[in-house]
Amino acid sequence: MDQAEVRRLLQEVAEGRSSVDDALLRLRMAPFTDLGFATLDDHRGVRQGVAEVIYGAGKTVDQITRIASAMWERGQRTILVTRIGPETAEAIGAALPVEYSELGRIAVVGEGPKADGSGTVVVVTAGTSDQSVAEEAAVTAEALGNQVTRVYDVGVSGLHRLLAHTEEIMRAEVVIAIAGMEGALASVVGGLADCPVIAVPTSVGYGASFGGVAALLTMLNSCASGVSVVNIDNGFGAGYLASMINHRRSGS
Where in this chain does the entry annotate a coiled-coil region (predicted)? Predict the structure, then answer.
C-alpha cells in the first residue's frame, strides 16, 4: 500500500463507499507480509512515498518472482527490480507484465507512473562504458515518476561534447553525473549547473582506478559546490535520490 492507495481508501470512507471498520482492517493488515524467506515492508510506500524495491542480486529466480507476485497481489502496480539478468525478467514476465532494460539490468513490473516531478532529471555519463550504471539510474527515476533526459558519452577527454548540452544541464532540476576512470565529470558538471548534482563513480577504468575508488575519491574531493556522491556503481541510489529532490517542490 502506498500513499495514493491510502488517499483512495480515505476518500472511500469520506464518500460512504467504505466503512471505518473496513478501512481500519485494510490498514491493520498492511504493515508487512511474511513469505517465510522474505518479509515484505507493505507500509514503506505509506511512510516514504515509494514502495519497497526488490534488489535481485543474490536472490533466486523463484524468490524474486514470488516477492514480485506478492507485492502485485497486494495492489502494488509499479514494482522495481534491480540487478537481474534476462532469464529472471523472463520468469517474472510469465506471471506479470514487465519491461526490462538489459543494459541497466533493471525491470519495471507493471506500468510506470506519469512524470509528476517539478522538473527534469538529466543523466550524464563520461563514457559509453558507464551506460549500464546510467540506465539503472534513469529507469529508476522514470519508474518513480520523473521526466529523464539522457546525455551519454560526453566525458572530459572531449569537453566540447559536454558543452554542446549546456542548455539541458542548466534547465535540469537535478543532474546525475556518472563517470569512471578519474571521475572528473562531476566537478565539470557541478561548475555548470545551478541545481544539485549527484555524482556516481563507476568501476570502469584501468588498474590504478582500483575498481572505482579513484573516481570515488575525486568526486568526494570535488571543488564544485552542490555535488553529492553515492557509492560505486550505485545507479539505483542516484536515481532514487534524484527523484526525492525532484518531488520536493511538486509536493507529490
Answer: none
Q: How sure is the predictor about 68, in pLDDT bands with cuts at 50, 70 and 90?
A: very high
Q: State phi, psi for 47 to the nearest 5 degrees.
A: -75, -45
Torsion sign, CA atoms 221, 225, 231, 232: negative
Nine-digit cell string for 237: 541510489
Q: In this predicted model, what pLDDT tens digit does every residue of 74-100 receive, in sequence order?
A: 878 899 999 999 999 999 999 899 999
Cβ atoms 172, 161 nearer than 8 A: no
Rounded Cα gap, residues 192 and 167, in angstroms: 10
Q: Percentage of the chain surpassing pLDDT 70?
A: 96
* Band of pLDDT at residue 2, cut at 50, 70 and 90: low
The reply to whether 252 falls in a domain is no
Number of folded domains that form the chain: 2
Q: What local confidence, expressed as pLDDT, does residue 39 receive?
A: 84
* Residue 251 falls inside a structural domain: no
Whole-number Å distance between alpha carbons of 231 and 252: 27
DSSP H stretches of helix in 116-182: 131-143, 159-163, 166-171
Residue 29 has pLDDT above 80, yes or no: no
Determine the structural domain holding residue 196 and report its residue range.
Answer: 120-246
CA distance 37 to 90: 22
pTM: 0.86
End-to-end CA distance of the chain: 16
Give the residue from 218, 192, 194, 198 showing the smallest Cα distance to 125. Answer: 198
Quote the CA–CA distance of 66 and 83 in Å, as a whole number. Answer: 16
Residues 6+ apart with CB under 8 A from 75: 1, 5
